[in-house]
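User: Can you write out an input/output pair for a complex, sequences first and structure second?

Assistant: Here is one pair. Inputs:
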Amino acid sequence: MNAIDGLMSGLEAAFTPTNLLWLVVGCLLGTLVGILPGLGPPATIAILLPLATGFEPATGLIMMAGIYYGAKYGGSTTSILLNIPGESSSVVTCIDGYEMAKQGRAGPALGIAAIASFVAGTIGVIGLTFLAPLAADVAVNFGPPEYSALMLFALLLVIMLAGDSMLKGFISMVIGLFLATIGTDLFSGEQRFTGGQIELAGGVEFIALSVGIFAIGEVLVNIEEKTEKQLFKVPTKIRELLPSMKDIKQSTPAMLQGGIVGFIIGILPGAGSTVASFVSYIIAKKTSRHPEEFGKGSIEGVAAPEAANNSETGGAMVPLLTMGIPGSGTGAVLLGALVLYGLNPGPLLFHEHADVVWPIIASMYLGNVVLVIMNLPMVPLFAKLLNTPYKVLYPAILLISVVGVYSVNFSMFDVGLLAVFGLLGYVMRKLDIPPAPLVLAFVLGPIAENAIRQSLLLSDNSPMIYLERPISAVLIGLAVLLLAVLGFGRKTRKVREQLVDVDA
Amino acid sequence: MASDTDQPAVAALDDGRVPHVEGTAAPSPEPAEPVASVEVAEPAPDAPDPADLRLTRRVHVALGLLIAALGAWLLYRSLTELAFKGSNGEPGPGYLPAILTIGLIGLGLALSAVWLWGPRARTGDVPTLSLSRAGMTRAGSVWLVLVVCIALVEPFGFLIAGEVLVLLIIVVIERIRSIPSIVALILVPPGMYVLFEILLEVQLPEGTLWR
């Protein structure tokens, strides 16, 4: 069965009243639960899995695909409105999304997130439909040297989020990398910097760190000044609560490149939507006509990571369906669901269970459509939430952060860490140290370290392995070029600024 | 028509005024020059306060030294507690921490150096930090309220700890008088309890004291 025929039969099977109903229910539940911090897509699917397994395999998996997409969009909502990232891939959305909310542009931000998700999600699913076998070949060629080179490249990109002070950006990144070493070393089994705390054996919980640094840190900065003024400007006209045609036109290149970048990176197991979202953000910044707006409420800065975040879903399904390798936590839960239904993910899945696989892929197209239809009308409602006086809103943010972090591992230790990282986030903001490099380095660090150590084990400690393999050699070359551009580019910019001052 | 050149030359008086000579056109009134002109330099509108600049500089120098000291302590721990290399010479568990902590030491010292001797710091062409004592005290108080709430969750449960947080904010921090705001805030913990515990079946702490 070729791809087009498979897709047509999948659409026919998915387009039944029962499947459509549960797809919509899945999208709605996924969005509502995904809004809650700490409950990102993996936790949302895990919570709602018992509901889905009562159905036929196709219906149940279609519902779970709806939950997954809904949870992704829900995570974006709290990132934009409250600066609380629901999962690691939402961190980048916080940078510009929350700034837009403070400027009274929460509606356009949420709207463009929905539209970008739809456009890029569709790109991702098209990629999955027609490129799955080719994409699987590429994924198979990615070994530890390629992963470590990719992570090195990605860590250098993180510095581009540093803003004006590269020194402070590096400090933030190194602190994040160090925090990621806390826990059990995978290779030797030794405890690193756990202080004897059993709760730290698995490392620092990401949600405690990110919610603490972003949400709690932001609350502490905002409440410094006792004022009756509203923190957020909320427009009253309905047309200002949705993105305008100008916003959509401005964001289109970012959406399209995010869709492509997200799919390509999504096919690499473990690279995940975090890398996809901020690589897309950096590319959008570098190619934008208004790069100076990034970090200050640029709509492209929301469109690009949201697009990448969603098209990554299509990419992540490639290793899952073709090789049975889950690309992320959510993929692992979906893999469990496939096995529960008696399906064996792998190269033969498309042949032996085409009647289940193609409806799942078709439902991803439909899920995109359902999400944009469902969420765009809800955007003004979400934006209006910001009308709440901040002195009523921030206690709710504090409590929801506590509950969100607790719900991940049911651990009060993690909640304690939330308070510690909240203070760290506040201090970083007061000292103008950017928090985003810390959080992103924390996610990428373990992948980078493990890949580097595996590579050196494979090559008998010879670093030449990076140059002997073509993909990693290209990525290392790009990383060196990027370092040169970073260093030279800043000097050139400073010289240019000085020349402009002299002319003035 | 008589032109200005037909006017007889008349010497100006000491104060610059030209005396009127009968029969001639009255001199056009020229604005008197000020006796003494004192140029008062107005401060540039965006110029930072020198006190803020000094504080910003000191804070950055101290921060850099603190980061370097922290890096040194963590480097010591990495080298004494963890193996730098594995049994076959491959990177051990202490490899990356050692490299990172050396990096932290270097970056911390660089930060202090840049703020002590860097050209922008010396000329004052840098953004200053916003370090208001009143603001930081307020933020610190809210943070302490959060810590108290977290400390109370385990023994008393989420509901009571949440209400304590809300009441401390209403009474101590914000001194809210508005009844709707007070009611809305008091309803937040039970609202969350219903959402998480009952609807989503995510178990929240009940409190060890009540077991």
